[in-house]
Design goal:
Length: 277
């Protein structure tokens, strides 16, 4: 019963960390879309990409000197007028009215749409993901501390007992199955620690990738100060580390597991040197 509860907690803890990491992956892809000049981000590009100029819309207005006849309603006197770039003219003997283009139309302005609203949406979503990670870490902090304490104690005591069983095995050859089962029991502790540490490192790595993608976003032409301010606030949000911890004493990452296993290995070396019997 207790082993099933322990395994259930391990799955829950790894699942919470992986779900948070998947959410960060989705946010990273959303941030990457902001750096595409041909996407919804308008005139936005990522650092290292060449400046992209959006294609100008095709000019369908008539060329200078082109005469276009417009059918005139009956009863209206033909009177030449000038409106904008076109000159309205009429013939004296014919009802159709003609206008000619007096000058070429001005070149269309380059579109530059800055997704300030999408940056706000990304910031709000990141805040929700951060709150989810913090609540999950606080909920699992004490059980995580108990897990690491039990695993470390089990490894230390188990290695000592295993060395005793090895000596008995070499002397009587009667404890082979017990030695193998105990070795598998010790390996289960190490596997649990490695799985939890790997999940924590995946979460930290996805947060760093999200920060890198946001830092690489550049605008061409330069964005207004309001957009830069939104991006700066978003980058500040990503500086808050999303880690699961053991009651605030350590973080569940690969570095912590490597240090713990190194301590256990040092203990094994000391036992071997003392020639425990």
């Amino acid at each position: 019963m207790s082993a099933g509860l322990v395994a259930l907690f391990d799955v829950l803890l790894v699942g919470l960390m992986d779900v948070t990491a998947v959410l960060l992956i989705r946010l990273g892809r959303f941030a990457a879309e902001l750096g595409r000049p041909d996407g919804d981000g308008g005139g936005i590009r990522s650092a290292g990409e060449p400046d992209s100029v959006l294609p100008e819309p095709e000019d369908t207005s008539p060329a200078a000197g082109t005469v276009i006849h417009v059918r005139q309603q009956s009863g209206e006197p033909p009177a030449p007028t000038k409106r904008g770039p076109f000159v309205l003219a009429s013939a004296e003997s014919s009802p159709p009215t003609a206008y000619t283009r007096a000058e070429s139309a001005p070149a269309p302005l380059q579109r530059a749409a800055y997704p300030e609203s999408r940056l706000r949406l990304l910031s709000a979503t990141l805040s929700e993901v951060t709150q989810l990670a913090e609540d999950s870490a606080d909920l699992c902090s004490l059980p995580t501390l108990s897990l690491h304490t039990a695993a470390t104690t089990g490894l230390l005591a188990g290695i000592y007992c295993f060395i005793q069983l090895v000596h008995i095995f070499f002397s009587t050859a009667a404890q082979v199955s017990e030695s193998v089962m105990f070795l598998l029991f010790l390996a289960s502790f190490a596997v649990r620690l490695v799985a939890i540490g790997a999940a924590g490192s995946r979460l930290s790595g996805q947060q760093q990738r999200l920060r890198a993608r946001l830092s690489a976003v550049r605008w061409s032409p330069p964005a207004p100060p309001a957009v830069h301010s939104e991006l700066h606030l978003l980058l500040e949000q990503t500086r808050q580390e999303l880690v699961f911890h053991g009651w605030g004493l350590f973080s569940t990452q690969k570095e912590t597991i490597v240090s713990l296993l190194g301590f256990v290995l040092t203990y094994v070396v000391i036992l071997v040197q003392m020639n425990v019997s």
